[in-house]
Write a structure and sequence with these properties.
This protein is α/β, with parallel strands linked by helices. It contains 14 helices and eleven strands. The chain has helices at 3-23, 41-50, 73-85, 100-112, 124-132, 140-144, 147-150, 155-160, 191-197, 205-217, 245-249, 272-286, 299-307, 326-334, and strands at residues 32-34, 55-62, 91-98, 119-122, 169-170, 185-190, 229-232, 258-261, 264-267, 311-317, 340-343. A five-stranded mixed sheet has the order 3-2-4-1-5. Strands 7-10-6-11 form a four-stranded mixed sheet. Strand 8 and strand 9 form a beta hairpin. Helix 1 crosses helix 3 (73-85) and helix 13 packs parallel to helix 14 (326-334). It is globular and about 70 Å long. The two termini are 24 Å apart. The model is unreliable at 1-11, 17-50 and 358-362 (pLDDT under 50).
């Protein structure tokens, strides 16, 4: 690798970290961010830069935001200005977005055609596969030359992502100052159904149970039929993610995480709290409160059920409440009074609440 190429990769790292600091974390992507292919992107950028032209990086993010401006908007201008101020000149970038299964389908097509972007979100299964196929390059030597980037990354997080002794992706980074990034995932609710039944938004797990019962049994859409489910979800593309995460959070547990118990680390899947949640979900399922198709359902199918007034509470993005979002536009066409709201994670009997935070930023 030439020194010029190393400088370009350092600029890419700086670009991505700057973009992450402005954008914060999102809920849609996998847990790490992969670099470009070893043979294509780096070489092309070296040749372009030698001509004195701006180096343009391609960024592909697992994030659903149809309102994202084609020119990058104000955020892109601020990132480029910050890079220029830091002495990193002649850099440009283009961002494309997709989400859920569509994202991974497009990413795999790019990989098979030899056109992987310079930066993209991946889960660990994809990262290890791309590494084995030689599609992504180790970042170890490059990170040694990026002290400012390393200040934002915890060594333990980086160590945990090593594959065959090498670093192929970057974990979530942390700004040095206190900063609360937006957590945009959670339970969405048909607020118009709550209004139809004279119910308040649920605050506790018991409240949620009562709402799910009412949504299932009390004809919330007023069509005279018993054809609704209280709760549903789409299957997750990332095996590390957990459906109904907020229910587990009410018990203070994230099944796919490691938890400290009596001075030892234990996998969340085997802890008593996880078994309690599974028993609770089984109870709800047997009562008909949970859509039986949740285990195989794609995001598009779930949204169709919401729009078709078949589901009242579902796991989704807080952005769904935006009137410009496709799911909201379609819901309003089908049900003019349709109204989506985001719920705070329900509080459990132990006064615990929350859900797994899934980040795609660096």
């Amino acid at each position: 690798m030439t020194m010029r190429r190393k400088e370009l990769w350092k600029s890419l790292l700086a670009l991505l970290l700057a973009a992450a600091s402005l954008a914060g974390c999102t809920s849609n992507s996998g847990s790490v961010a992969g670099g470009s292919t070893a043979g294509d992107a780096g070489t092309d950028k070296k040749e372009t830069a030698s001509d004195g032209q701006p180096v343009t990086y391609k960024i592909f993010r697992n994030f659903g935001a149809p309102e994202y401006p084609a020119d990058g908007g104000r955020g892109k201008k601020e990132v480029l200005a910050a890079l220029d101020k830091a002495g990193l000149k002649g850099i440009d970038f283009n961002v494309s977005l997709a989400s859920g299964s569509e994202y991974f389908t497009k990413l795999n097509l790019q990989a098979s055609s030899g056109e992987l972007p310079d930066f993209f979100n991946v889960d660990m299964a994809t990262l290890t596969r791309f590494a084995d196929e030689g599609l992504i390059m180790p970042l170890d030597d490059l990170l040694k030359s990026a002290p400012n980037a390393m200040k934002l990354i915890k060594p333990g997080d980086l160590e945990a992502l090593k594959y065959k002794g090498k670093i192929y992706g970057l974990p979530v980074g942390y700004r040095p100052e206190p900063f609360n990034g937006p957590d945009i995932s959670g339970f969405n609710v048909r607020q118009d159904w709550l209004d139809n039944l004279g119910l308040q938004q649920p605050k506790t797990l018991d409240d949620l149970y009562k709402v799910l019962q009412a949504f299932t049994n009390n004809d919330p859409d007023k069509n005279g039929k018993k054809d609704t489910f209280g709760l549903s979800s789409a299957k997750t593309a990332n095996p590390q993610n957990t459906q109904f995460s907020a229910i587990f959070g009410a018990y203070g547990i994230i099944p796919s995480f490691w938890h400290e118990r009596d001075g030892q680390l234990k996998q969340g899947m085997v802890l008593p709290e996880t078994k309690e949640v599974l028993a609770l979900l089984q109870k709800w399922y047997k009562e008909g409160l949970i859509d039986p198709e949740f285990i195989i359902m794609e995001t598009k199918q779930l949204e169709e059920k919401v729009i078709g007034s078949k589901v009242g509470v579902f796991e989704g993005s807080a952005f769904n409440v935006d009137p410009k979002q496709p799911i909201n536009v379609s819901l309003k066409k089908a049900v003019p009074a349709g109204n989506l709201k985001i719920l705070a994670p329900p509080v459990g009997t132990g006064r615990q609440a929350g859900m797994a935070r899934e980040c795609s930023c660096l």
